[in-house]
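JOB MANIFEST
job_type = single_chain_structure
chain_count = 1
residues = 346
[input]
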Amino acid sequence: MQIREGPARRPAPSAAGPLRSPMSAMMLAMFATMASFYVAGRLWQDAQNRVYLINELDRRTGQGQSAISVDDTLKVVACRQQAKRLASLEMELAAAKHEGFVGKYTPETNGTHSKKQPLIVIGIMTSFGRKNYRDAVRKSWLPTGSMLKKLEEEKGIVVRFIVGRSANRGDTFDREIDDENRSTKDFLILDDHIESDEELPKKTKSFFANAAETFDAAFYAKVNDDIYINVDTLSAMLETHWDKPRVYIGCMKSGEVFSDSTHKWYEPDWWKFGDGKSYFRHASGEMFVISRAVAQFISINKSVLRTYAHDDVSVGSWMIGLAVKHVNEAKLCCSSWPSGAMCSAL
């Protein structure tokens, strides 16, 4: 029987597949290159369009002259962060000093003479027309002349009467204070503060800020000009608080918040203290002490620290949000003169 032959079979392709021609590879490379150029061109064009639109928006809205740019905003943010960091470093430095890195009375060379760090700066709050009170202080516990300088050099105690300026700058009140200061040299005059009974909280804030900038002391105290101080007892007490870099010392109290505008101690912001209308714990205004780190905090943040009707409440409010050690010191309750007290009403 005749067998019919089928169609001839084609040979199977090799495992490596058919070889591509050089022309196909070149075309693929050219296509990829052109695609890259196209994408890059579109990205560049989009960027240029965004720049144009931003400039046109600034031109039409006038923001080009008045708005703060992104760079300026970042600079402001950076400055605020640096200010916070500076405040933190200042407080850490003060803590290091208190912990012994700098001696309590280590001489610091300044030019050709040695200078001791003051233990405390005492600011006596006074005002116009109270020369009799200042003279009573000078005759009772505050030395004058060379003895005042000796108190500073030997005991590290700096004492200054604190007063602002008259609303009518250069009038009789200002001249009287200037004349008295030329004679006694025991004033710290706050040129940035207008003297007024209603502005005592701001005056206290200005004192701490100026004192921290002027004197590199370990402690700063606010005292009324009708208070007698035993400086030796005060020094001994402060020696026990060197291990507390952030300290707030005083006769701690609370008390009622008065909402009656006719009351002597009326508080316009009474509603902020809650339904109980009771103040938080704070040091009595006759005399209280803060450490250097706290005074530096006040100096750095003086423009944003809120004041209330009374200076002792104002200072106490600043301490609430800080890691500050509150020390209730009965010897600073100046209304009486018990044994071992540091202050008393004259």
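[summary]
Residues 102-114 have pLDDT under 50 and may be disordered.
The chain has ten helices and eleven strands.
exit_status = 0
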